[in-house]
Amino acid sequence: MKFKIIKKSKENKARISLLYTPHGEVELPNFMPVASQGTVKTLPPKDLKEIGVQIIVSNTYHLHLRPGEDLINKMGGLHKFMNFEGVILTDSGGFQVFSLSELREVKEEGVEFKSHIDGKKIFFTPEKVVEIQLKLGSDILMVLDECPSYPSDKAYAEKSLDLTLKWAERSYKYFKNAILKEENPPLIFAISQGSTYLDLRKKGIEEILKYEFDGYAIGGLAVGEPTEVREEIILNIIDLFPEDKPRYIMGVGYPEDIFFCIEHGIDLFDCVLPTRNARTGLVFTSQGKIRIKNSIFADDENPLDPECDCYVCKNFTRAYIRHLFNAEEYLALYLASYHSVYFYINLMKKIRKSIKEDRFYEFKKRFFEKYKVD
Q1: What does the pLDDT average to over 348-370?
Q2: What pLDDT shows up at residue 18?
Q3: What is the DSSP letter of 138?
Q4: How many beta carbons lie within 10 A of that of residue 164, not counting itself?
């Protein structure tokens, strides 16, 4: 068994479930802090464990460039290399097809990149990407896809989708052949694309469902489209995915978006928001985001979040953390990141509890009575 639904909400499509992987179980819904290069920036694995992080997402493209999957494999795999005991999902590098558009060329066979580090050419095929992730020792592999930018004209989006579907088929066949003799193999997820065109989205889902992937991701959203457009897509495609498989939406991370997605049946999230924002002094709290560098916090004796019981909030004031940022002390980045990751992980715990107790809407209402959305 790889996925088990524990509880379905009586209020909506939210559900509590367990995802089984070679490195343990993941309770869903859940949020994955981003560890692109084998680290959640500034946070050592012991802190991730203390916070309650069950799963992280690392990046195939970045780890291939340095230090390389062969070295990581030689060191015993990514878990041992970075000393992380939890579950690791690795993105395929498909997002870099989107984000590094000036440094890559997409072909039917795969994607040619120029390394953003030294300009060296590398070529990713769907098979190569699976091979890299297997060498890394990932628990959950993602197929190579092309993520169209927003806006995209329909002709390009359709061509891009057809390529993604061909790559998904090739990835699946290579993966199944590669794990034939493994007793406890990793999981592989397909990715839904189709830009903002519902007919393309539906076509893409119908095609990837022809293969027994272990889970399904919604890609190509959170790339600049209006919130209402993203929500319309989710509402129209979510029931096309099988109920007995996990659903992962890639790159969506604002609390208001997470609530919407969970309410409509999505289980897994990742985003750079908590850590990237924290390193600039923008911190998530139960009252909303605060800019800790602002002068109003210069003599504030309160913790970052008075309702938080994390290590940072139990031990440090806003005034001190503001001072660290202004003095450009590295400790500022650590403390802000620790708290923001804790905020997300604790929020997911509370959401799971509210689903279990059939009071999701009550919890959502109380949360947004305090949390101010910009």
Answers
A1: 98
A2: 98
A3: -
A4: 28
Please count the other Cβ atoms lying within 10 Å of the Cβ belonging to residue 123: 12
Q: What is the pLDDT of residues 192-210, one digit of tens each?
A: 999 999 999 999 999 999 9
**Cβ atoms 183, 200 nearer than 8 A:** no
The per-residue pLDDT for 99 is: 65
**Placement of tokens 């305090």 in the chain:** 370
CA distances, 172 to each of 168, 175, 237 (Å)? 6, 5, 22
User: CA–CA separation, 368 vs 99, rounded Å?
Assistant: 32
How does the average pLDDT of the chain come out, rounded? 96
Q: Is the pLDDT assigned to residue 101 strictly greater than 70?
A: no
Quickly count: other Cβ atoms within 10 Å of residue 243's Cβ. Answer: 11
Sign of the CA dihedral running 321, 322, 327, 328: positive
Residues 56 and 12 sit within 8 Å (Cβ to Cβ): no
- Give the position of tokens 């946070």: 43
Angstrom distance (rounded) from CA 221 to CA 241: 17
Which CATH class name applies to 3-244+251-267? alpha beta
DSSP 3-state of 117: coil
Cα 168 to Cα 106: distance, rounded to the nearest angstrom: 15
CB 240 within 8 Å of CB 216: no
Instruction: Tell which residue, 30, 26, 10, has the closest CA to residue 346.
Output: 30
Overall average pLDDT of the 261-283 stretch: 98
Please state, in angstroms and as integers, the Cα–Cα distance from residue 279 to each residue in 11, 130, 325, following that order: 37, 32, 9
Residue that is written with structure tokens 């390529």 in the block: 163
183: Cβ–Cβ under 8 A, 6 or more apart, which residues? none
CA-based nearest residue to 89, from 44, 142, 38: 142
CA atoms of 212 and 208, how far apart (whole Å): 8
CA distance 338 to 336: 6
Predicted pLDDT of residue 103: 67
Domain definitions of the chain by residue range: 3-244+251-267, 272-368
Taking CA atoms, 292 is separated from 259, 284, 295, 326, 336, in Å, by 25, 10, 8, 10, 9
> Residue 24: beta bridge partners?
21
Catalytic positions, written as ranges: 91, 270
pLDDT of residue 100: 67
Q: What are the start-end ranges of the H helices in the chain?
A: 45-51, 60-65, 69-74, 78-82, 94-99, 126-136, 154-178, 198-208, 227-237, 255-263, 273-278, 311-315, 318-326, 330-356, 360-370
